[in-house]
Amino acid sequence: MVKICCIGAGYVGGPTMAVIALKCPEIEVAVVDISVSRITAWNSDTLPIYEPGLDEVVKKCRGKNLFFSSDVEKHVSEADIVFVSVNTPTKTQGLGAGKAADLTYWESAARMIADVSKSNKIVVEKSTVPVKTAEAIEKILTHNSKGIDFQILSNPEFLAEGTAIQDLFNPDRVLIGGRETPEGQKAIAALRDVYAHWVPVDRIICSNLWSAELSKLAANAFLAQRISSVNAMSALCEATGADVSQVSHAVGKDTRIGPKFLNASVGFGGSCFQKDILNLVYICECNGLPEVANYWKQVIKINDYQKTRFVNRIVSSMFNTVSGKKIAILGFAFKKDTGDTRETPAIDVCKGLLGDKALLSIYDPQVNEEQIQRDLAMKKFDWDHPVHLQPMSPTSIKQVNVVWDAYAATKDAHGVCILTEWDEFKTLDYQRIYDNMRKPAFIFDGRNVVDEAKLRAIGFIVYSIGKPLDQWLKDMPAVA
Ligand code: UDX
Ligand code: ADP
């Protein structure tokens, strides 16, 4: 029986291994993590991550051929294939600070694999890593191998949160990179056989190691670039009276461009986009390509500009001050259908408003108070360390109140900001919300989910990203 072990029971490792277990009943899959509380949660009725469809998959396989354990060494030593899906934070100190990936967790995982292995293993890079990580890992493993053969593969994950199970069931492609030696090709074939249980073979792409690693960074950079492109257009639309959704629709009808990923927003978030682009920038700089590095940097700059622009709109339209005013924040996750808040634009928007002394009342259907307080107290990049190594939030921020209901959040508020596109925000009783707010009542829609005309008819002053501006906003222009 083939045994698979995955180190790191996070957003990538958990769902990916659950789907492998479901689709390959004859393979035993163990997911291990140094975080005992995370493993306990995976073994409980309340999984540590929210992902539509995940519960059912886990329930079907857990205890049969899917196991969650904190006995990392035992499962690694028994496995034929070891996936590594640990944190790869951005370095905050030293060489490459603010850009390069910190490979501390990867390196310690690799050293542990070398220490405990007694049989040959295929080691698969699953978490996004900078190009050439495989080479570094290979060096650690082979220098400590005690005669054991380690084959390193890169098998980047392309799943998006909120649709992870669907993406895993029906991937656009599976990419496997490996060495171009007979042993490397054999390892690629072994992993291809796992995916071939449910993925059509023409969707399984094989390449060399570096191409696979770089493809992951490139794919995320291209996706993020589309969002920054449409967000850049949204600023121009507001300045000129065009409607960004009409522009996106018209542009996306060109089959060469396509309609997906053209929604203007308050900015992209998530654990991958910014980190991967920063990595790409660092690699370009290290390879003497400053022009290419600057090109990709601009994608992040526009994303930051979009968040700043949004905050400035709020403050300027509310008579240039939000000090002491209650502002309701609807949605804190970086997108709908996930409880994940990593790099969510809500953090920067909230921090911007707090900087102007606003009182925030935050509601997100999937994010709890502890997480929100921790996010707002944390420094940039601290989020991407295992939870037990993250700095504790010193004291909760007093200007922030987290509630479990959109109506409680908006009661007596001066303004409402929609920062995540949760479906429920489309169908709220906005008349009721308006009646319970201070006047003039403002709505700042950072996700273009509300029907502006209806809200204006109720009496709201509405700002929607990239849409023609209310006279009120035109009279109170924001300085970015
Ligand atoms: C992304 C990639 O899509 C996935 O392939 C990769 O494996 C990991 O990184 P994820 O971060 O989970 O996935 O979410 P994604 O759906 O890509 O959204 C990223 C951010 O972009 C979100 O904040 C989302 O709201 C925003 N977004 C997306 C927009 O602002 N506009 C869009 O049109 C699409
Ligand atoms: P991703 O989104 O890439 O899945 P997460 O942060 O959700 O990232 O998950 C990474 C997981 O890896 C965390 O649960 C963390 O505790 C775990 N981890 C980090 N280092 C190690 C290690 N050396 N051994 C086992 N687990 C580890």
Automatic annotation (TrEMBL):
NAD(+) binds at residues 8-13, 33, 38, 86-90, 127-128, 161, 272-275, 342. It catalyses: UDP-alpha-D-glucose + 2 NAD(+) + H2O = UDP-alpha-D-glucuronate + 2 NADH + 3 H(+). This is UDP-glucose 6-dehydrogenase. NCBIfam families: NDP-sugDHase. PANTHER family: UDP-GLUCOSE 6-DEHYDROGENASE 1 (PTHR11374:SF53), UDP-GLUCOSE DEHYDROGENASE/UDP-MANNAC DEHYDROGENASE (PTHR11374). Its EC number is 1.1.1.22. Pathway: Nucleotide-sugar biosynthesis; UDP-alpha-D-glucuronate biosynthesis; UDP-alpha-D-glucuronate from UDP-alpha-D-glucose: step 1/1. Residues 328-452 form the UDP-glucose/GDP-mannose dehydrogenase C-terminal domain. It comes from Gossypium barbadense. It comes from the Eukaryota. GO terms for cellular component: nucleus. It holds the Pfam family UDPG_MGDP_dh_C. The active site is at residue 272. One of its GO terms (biological process) is glycosaminoglycan biosynthetic process. InterPro entries: 6-PGluconate_DH-like_C_sf, NAD(P)-bd_dom_sf, UDP-Glc/GDP-Man, UDP-Glc/GDP-Man_DH_C, UDP-Glc/GDP-Man_DH_C_sf, UDP-Glc/GDP-Man_DH_dimer, UDP-Glc/GDP-Man_DH_N, UDPglc_DH_euk. Keywords: NAD, Oxidoreductase. Belongs to the UDP-glucose/GDP-mannose dehydrogenase family. Signal peptide: none annotated. One of its GO terms (molecular function) is NAD binding.
